[in-house]
Fold this sequence. Notes:
By secondary structure, the chain is an alpha+beta fold. It has one domain (3-101): Aspartate Aminotransferase, domain 1 (Alpha-Beta Complex). Helices cover 33% and strands 32% of the residues. The chain has three helices and six strands; from the N terminus they run H-E-E-E-E-H-E-E-H. It has a six-stranded antiparallel sheet. It starts with a helix and ends with a helix. The relative contact order is 0.21. The model has no long low-confidence stretch (mean pLDDT 96).
Amino acid sequence: xxxxxxxFLNIGKSLENAEQSQMFGKPCxxxxxxxxxxxxxxxxxxxxxxxVHTDAINLESAKLFDPSGKNRAMKxxxxxxxxxxxxxxxxxxxxxxxxxxx
Length: 102
């Protein structure tokens, strides 16, 4: 297991009512059966909206999540590199709040 993956796991396990699961064959955490964070290409991916989404996508090297690699990005999902890992937990909290609100 990579340090990045362990960091992802620790964040997911620290969030109340978050359940470890799979999304597109990738590790994720869900709340109320809805995915809100996942791990892909040694980076963490967050389901976000509004200004939090804007803040996330504006981070250096952040991008919309495109698990197929066929230029079909999932517009609400932002993939954030490990160099911004100090912000991962806050984005995870915001992603969980967002998913719980819809």
